[in-house]
């Protein structure tokens, strides 16, 4: 008995659930969990079907292709460990949480390597017997630095790139190369406080709640599809530094939760938004 | 075009989603939203299918009965206003929230009548042109009092009875007569602080969080299937009275949310638990 | 025995707590609750002292004026019911919650009158025996309309004006006339989604959390000092309308909580921020 | 310039704030933050005063002792790193979070050693160059095992003992030896689900919220003074195992927050409750 996940993303049409689940039934696959969503404004259908049984991938996909409307995307994903490359700068909290969750088995993923533009986090990474590469950006053109990073990333062939407080802006070339596969944590409740120093901005505005946002990276800074967000309450007694300290716990938990959702194939990218089946 | 909701609750079996959605497709009904859950430990399947189209109820149900396993329960419910009878004692906050939400159209329901064992809330109910009946319990045996209440309730033939801070314990006879149709709000995060004076108990225990629980009423006091719960943070500075005051906002919002879920046919009773499709 | 609240807002200096509490002690006043905050960046001291005893206001304030540094503001406020005028347009949820809380005694305040620029909410207000005035803006210059509103407001001499979903922008003249006394509820988690149609903006951005913000009104739209904020989680299945419906419960509870804080003299305005002693 | 915290816990009396802050002022100490609470039912006064200046501890305490009523307890605590011994069994999540927070400097504490009754977590602890001692209980009387533990703990002379998922019940002798200095994390929202397997109990009851509780350990199992609690929402789709997995994040954050509060001297034990100045 194997477990696989069938992901369907196609123009909406009548009878899609019946057609897809019929094909699964015909293949004697048991549906463990089924989630669907129709974006009526856009006329788009999304379905995630967790299946159990003996799979003949080729004929299953063939049957689906016959049944689904033109413009359909469908993937049949085997449950199994994905590979990550993490990118970091100096702050350890998000990196540390992911390392610890992997160590404890709470996040079922292989961290192939960690790349930092500063050396600070190397010692922490190496405690967990994971390769750490320091690629400093000083003295390099942005394009030159990114070429080094991309070469290294490609060596590891990761499924996803996780920016665990990587404090550099990526070029459109970089983003294009890993489209839909770069996950970032932004230290504000987007779209509030886009850009640099969000906690300083939050302090100056006098907000009573601060937050964090995990999103896919696109060319527009802090504008990519949001995967997960959360917040905590603060008050007048929080300095910008105290907000940053309090915010770290939200950042790490939002990033870890977003990562878990992506790893479990629960997230569809839908234009500039996501469909997330929790 | 009509909208109806198909509710299926049956022993688990292979191909149930395919079979049911196929029948819907054959009847040219469009599935707006489908939710399903399998309790694997109990081998029980639950599905809520929101449908749109032209319904032939009799043949649809016939087709379903042919397809579903023995022991299946299925209901096809027309969207439409349910009727409530509310039961109250003296506290206005839950009653007031329901009255106001109905007035504003946020809760699509008909409040047929309000029954109080004290006269205090009559004036409030009558502002909204809803009948209020005061049935005092003083000087009556419990059974006698309940007979009066049941006679009155039955006159109104409500779909659900909502205990909006009705501070009397119901007899098994009363509960049996409206089985699965009585919704209560308990002023604690059950199963903590079962029974009387939960805020006093919470104060004495020194908890840092208090809550409220909406549940179906069964014979065991405060032990019925939980529909919805929520909490708020408190601290050492809250007296039992301050906890009660703070708790009222949670009580009212938990009861209103639970009621909304029930009215939208999102709640299955499953033994002593619920399956709630949000 | 009387209860009063002493509010001190002055340049920071050594020994302020000792000096103020000493004076209270000398006057044989018992401190029930004391809260203080120093904004070190701005060098400003804030203290709220809840007192009990026999007050000689004149000599107490005289003693304080001797002890406090130049530029100090201090107020001694008798506990007692404040007067409100509410301003509304068409949506009943915030108005309804305030009306119901006053009726239930959960908000100790006198609602002197409700002013609407549409007639829709008149029937609801009058259920509670409170004067409702409809002042339509159609066919009037903004200044003309506001003159009518201000004349009416001034007749009622309220302590605070509460904009309970009043959907018009106020002129600087209006804001200046009631500086620091106008409380607004904005239907987003400010500073995200400033301006019109925040739920539509939130929907288009694909956020996973929506919120509400209660703030004092200043000349800059949606930029006044924030008193209270809260949020709820949403997902891809929420349309803009569903977000608006879900948001109403947050809006009403945030506005009611902010109002309660202001009425209990827990809020200092501090530049474009607030200091709130909960 | 030094920073110290003055903690006062005494019978309530008039003028206590004035007297204490006066003495601080006389000693030319600046009050950075002052928090006080009076339990009126018990007639007890609590104050935490964060001070800055040049301290003469002996005369300061002498002055205080003259001013405070009989039965007063007061402590003057230098800011500085406390020493912890952690006790664990097999689960790494709470331990891992504390280790990582210490590594990152987010928790300013020295972890002197970790003691496990199983060897499983030794490798993790040693990554951080902290001594790990495995003291298996198998084949020993409870008293014998605890003697070994106490001997080891005493060698390290910690300020606090943190039970980071230590799955053994402690004897009254053990508890008495470290009274008020043992912090435990319980994997439920106490007082719900006292005792073993709280997630299984929560699953069986069908609750919609699960939580975690950090508390001081007393002789009564799970009945000690609560320091911090938090919850997360769950639904019918969570098995007992899924609840346990989801609960781990709450457990670790509640324990870390409680520990931070204790380390910052923000927690008074008050009978079977706590007073916590956040």
UniProtKB/TrEMBL annotation, chains A, B, C, D:
Q: Which reaction does it catalyse?
A: (6R)-10-formyltetrahydrofolate + H2O = (6S)-5,6,7,8-tetrahydrofolate + formate + H(+)
Enumerate the InterPro entries for this protein: ACT-like_dom_sf, ACT_dom, Formyl-FH4-Hydrolase_C, Formyl_transf_N, Formyl_transf_N_sf, PurU, PurU_ACT
PROSITE patterns, alphabetized: ACT
Record-annotated active site: 222
Q: In which pathway does it act?
A: Purine metabolism; IMP biosynthesis via de novo pathway; formate from 10-formyl-5,6,7,8-tetrahydrofolate: step 1/1
One Pfam family, short name please?
Formyl_trans_N
Role according to the record: Catalyzes the hydrolysis of 10-formyltetrahydrofolate (formyl-FH4) to formate and tetrahydrofolate (FH4).
Question: Know the name of this protein?
Answer: Formyltetrahydrofolate deformylase
Biological source species: Microbulbifer marinus
Write the gene name: purU
